[in-house]
Amino acid sequence: MLKEFTAEVSDVLLSPFLEARDYPTAEELLSQLIQEHADPVIAKILQSKLHVSLNGSQGNQENQDAMEIAGELRATLIADLRKMQQRPHQKSITSFRDYVATKTYSACADYFREKNPQRWRLKNLLRYQLNQHPQFALWRADNSRWYAGLSQWQEASNAGNLSGTLPSSGTILEMFATKPAQDLTPAELLGAIFEQVRQPVEFDRLIALAAEVWNITDSPIASVDDPNRDPSNEPVNSSPGVDVLLERRLFLENVWAEVCQLPVLQRAALLLNLRDAHGGSAIFFIPYLGIASHEQIAKLLGFTDEQFSALWSELPLDDLRLAKILGITRQQVINLRKTARERLARRMEKTEDAEFRSRSQ
């Protein structure tokens, strides 16, 4: 959930409730706040994001889910406001309607993430690529919808008439005839789509096309209480899906980008000693995954291609060997690697926080 709004002065809308001196009056004012000010905000957002009516007579699953979310939000708001009245100096809400909206958008995000986990991961992957790649952009247009495209399209488009036909997944795959779909990077796929459409694409439609190309689907969630469900007869697939593989690759790309920002001695102390789960060198996977070439790694570590090739078969190196190569002491190697890991941990934590905040888009 998103962080609470904090400020020294609360919304004046809350003042009568916060200043109430007897329980019946406080409860009556609390009920009024929920019914007259919170419920309309909750209903508007749920109807828009989940495409439901919130009419109790409609029994489809999505509508029932939305009504359940609304009930949970009311309970949360009531609990928050009661705590706030009991401890008025510990937390304030500068805008009650904004507070309710933030809670509701966050609840919608949680719902979609649980109901469609693979699509959710794909959406985050594409959003990150669009925001980080200098050739791409993601922006909100005048019609309040999110669009994606090449960076230069952002300034020129008003999104007034951007409902053109998207290419089929087959057309996109034909552009990579010798490359399997699962090996396409997000940047390659986005570039191919934009090359075909030649105009901004609504972000949700872009996600749908990418899911089709990579064959990413979310299966209906089966109830564990289903009496006809027999887990022993369900197929077991231990291979990770394309969405998981892409997410792992994106994580490694993020880590590598941060490694490139380390001082050269820290890079060497970390990478030349880096081990996989079986004790082998983890650096071998970097060229294999296409994150960086053998020559790029050598340059990053301050070696010539010949020097690095001579060390390649010896990796991973122990601290004494590293100290001799780098011209420092063994303890300095240990300290450099420790500092590098701590810095990477801090940087990756910031990256994850930024990605979480972007989910409200």
Topology:
Elements: H1 15-19, H2 23-50, H3 61-86, H4 96-115, H5 117-132, E1 136-140, E2 146-150, H6 151-156, H7 169-174, H8 186-197, E3 201-202, H9 203-214, H10 242-259, H11 264-271, H12 285-288, H13 294-300, H14 305-312, H15 319-326, H16 330-358
Q: Please report which band the strand proportion falls in: under 5%, 5-15%, 15-25%, 25-35%, 35-45% or over 45%.
A: under 5%
Taking all Cα atoms into account, the compactness measure Rg is 26 Å
Please state the average pLDDT score.
77
Number of strand elements:
3
The backbone outline, from C-alpha atoms, is extended
Structural class: mainly alpha
> What's the total helix number?
16
Order of helices and strands: HHHHHEEHHHEHHHHHHHH
Strands across the major sheet, in which order? Answer: 1-2-3
Weakly predicted, low-confidence segments = 1-8, 219-244, 352-361
Distance between the termini: 14 Å
Count of discrete structural domains = 3
Characterize the main sheet: 3 strands, antiparallel
Roughly how much helix do the residues carry, as a percent range? 55-70%
Written account of the structure:
With 361 residues, this protein is mainly α. It has three domains: 12-115, no CATH class; 119-214, no CATH class; 260-358. 59% of the residues lie in helices and 3% in strands. Helix 2 runs antiparallel to helix 3 (61-86), helix 10 packs across helix 16 (330-358) and helix 11 (264-271) crosses helix 16 (330-358). The longest helix has 29 residues, at 330-358. It starts with 14 loop residues before the first helix and ends with a helix. The model is unreliable at 1-8, 219-244 and 352-361 (pLDDT under 50).
